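Entry type: protein chain
Record version: 2
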Amino acid sequence: MNEAARTGEKTTRMRKQPGGELLDDLLAVEEPLEIRIGGEPLVVTLRTPGHDRELAAGFLFAEDIVTRREDFVALAPSRDPLVYDPDNLIEVELTPEAGSRRGAIEGARREYLAAAACGLCGKARLETIFQRLPEIAPLELDPELVLRLPARMEAAQRIFPRTGGVHAAALFTAEGDLLSLYEDVGRHNALDKLVGAALLAGSLPWSGKIVATSARAGFELVQKAMLAGASALVAVGATSTLAVDTARRGGLALYAFTRPGRSNRYC
């Protein structure tokens, strides 16, 4: 794997405007990742390389293909010498029980490239969008603590301060202590990495925990956080009607437009 893939950033040349001065600039790395199950293609997504195992595990968890780390027999970059780009291919082998969930696997399959901003893109049937959501343990947060979370999240980011080109998803305790954080060009990927790491560590569900995102709290991020059992989601960006309706139905505390001095609580 090249240096850019390891660090998540790459130097390129750019011409600064106005004036036309030629300078070096750091950009966030964006490359395709293919996930295969049992040798069969499932999805190609655009992501920032690094923590690909966690990304694949989180994606499969969100799609209800796996529910625990024991569902995996193998989860690793391809070792096939005939593969064109093994660094961008994750091979998954599931237990017979998990592998028998053909409906979930077919529902997760994408028929075209899933862009970094895409969560539900490529879903062919409406019924595959909505997952069975768990009941969420209620959590009342100190409003002042909520306002501090975005700054704590940004302070822990490594790629964003240097490139300005990635999102973050972070996990906090109810007291505001940072437990884990992942970055990616895709907001869904960042949360999948966060969830996947917890799944592989055997630390799901996240009852009593807070998920924070630098992105907007769209339906897909709300659903992913709820499937992982989080009690609250704090977003720097906006939210949507479907996200709010879903959070209310499941009991998730949802905050959006969170920044110093203000935050909106929707449920």
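Comment: The first strand starts at residue 9 and ends at 16.
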